[in-house]
Amino acid sequence: MATGNVIHHHHNIAAFCKNRLPAAASTHQQATTIDKNAHRKPPSNRAIKLAESLSNMLHIHLDTTTTAHKTLNRSNLNLSTFHEKHDTPATSPKEDISDKWREFHGSSDWQNLLDPLHPSLRREIVKYGEFAQATYDAFDFDPFSEYCGSCKYNRRKLFEKLGLTKNGYNVTKYVHAMSHIDLPQWLEKSHLVETWSKDSNWMGFVAVSDDQESRRIGRRDIVVSWRGTVAPSEWYDNMQRKLEPIGQGDARVEHGFLSIYTSKSCTTRYNKTSASEQVMAEIKKLVKFYENNGEQVSLTITGHSLGGALALINAYESAKNFPGLPISVVSFAAPRVGNIAFRDELYQMGVKTLRVTSKQDVVPRMPGFVLNESLQRFDDITGTLEWIYTHVGVELKLDVRSSPYLKKGLNLVGFHMLETYLHLVDGFHSSESGFRVEARRDVALVNKECDMLVDELRIPHSWYQSANKGLIQNHHGRWVKPVRDPEDVPSPTAVDSRAGGVLELEYV
User: Fold this and answer.
1) Which pTM was predicted?
2) Parallel, antiparallel, or unpaired for β 243-245 and 252-254?
3) Nearest to 356 by CA among 300, 405, 308
4) Is 162 exposed, middle or buried, given 0-12, 13-18 or 19+ CB atoms closer than 10 A?
5) pLDDT tens-digit profile of 118-136?
6) Arithmetic mean of pLDDT over the chain
7) What percent of the chain has pLDDT above 90?
8) Cβ contact 392:337 at 8 Å
9) What is the 3-state secondary structure (H, E, C) of 106-160?
10) Whole-number Å distance between alpha carbons of 243 and 65
11) Catalytic positions, please?
């Protein structure tokens, strides 16, 4: 991903926070919480409690610093230990978790697994996070590319190109979503007239565990990974729309998220069917195939930022269509998606959600800075608040200050980056302890798209990009954009002679 494209996605974050966010940090909280507030007792002094709640929601009180956090600073940085890791594997040996997979998949809401964080669960969270990161690493952000908005590789090469074959999954389907609809400019489009598609973006993929990985994890795991986009300034200005109904009850979700998930057009090449229809058809096919083989099947849906929102909507639809199928969402830096009824329906259908957030990241606080689930404690005053945004599931809250490798100070871009999250997950042991000395994930990955690492490590910022920013020299010595390998070019529309209809093809 070119550095300039990264800046294109993030340059408005600082301005957004300066103009929109109250000045001050949130209170120190436990590493794990679950958003089920309805059982709380009514406040004895309603006026005082309401004032305290509004203060909390506006984040205007000072952050308390615990003794543990005082020890988690750059003074703990050991450069010799850091350099010694260069000659060690970047991952730990895989463990057999076949007898515990239901716990790690959220059957008991991850009780007693998050604080301290179970080592095997940590590996699974990082695995799903790497699938979400793949949707960024393989995405063509270049607005001057005729393939802007597509994946750089065909699905059979994706994990090989990104070094993810170690995870033991195979991609079975690419998912595309509409980009030219009445939405904020969340999705990408080329500046060129002739492009692979004027209407669609690559939004993620469906993958399934291979035989070896399935034996290790105790079931055949279907994964859906959704791509995000990170421009919170646009989010704030454009996401304050009405909550739209989803399903038959009172559940409602944010307009923009639902539109990306469900929009389609018969005039498009890649979205004659919606992202919803594409992914549900693939899940149905895979579930049927493996269940007919007598296998236990699970569905795990992951995504970062906007991708985390799409993952939750995808989980809702999947639970409606596949009752009894174990469904979990592992999201990173995800915003609120729907209202209380949406949350409650997900609980009732058995969907398990693990939200990985960072205290310093602003996106998980949106939409609904003030009007959010915190108001539910005042149901006796306000009545049922079906129109407010509400988080779903269990939260694993991380802290940028816990890592001796990360810079102090305000870095709103870096706070939100998925690689920052994966670094913090890898180093997290508990809310009362420091960064794990034995953490193995490559620290240099943090600076792929931002400038978060301390200068002592000498890792360039925003280093993840194609050589020479994608330009190559032709046989005349001129620098030009290369031609994609034919197998990586999005396929043109083709006619199915058997049915007399039009096929939507993907680069396979």
Assistant:
1) 0.82
2) antiparallel
3) 308
4) middle
5) 999 999 999 999 999 999 9
6) 81
7) 56
8) yes
9) CCCCCCCCECCECHHHHHHHHHHHHHHHHHHHCECCCCCCCCCCCECCCCCCHHH
10) 37
11) 305, 361, 416
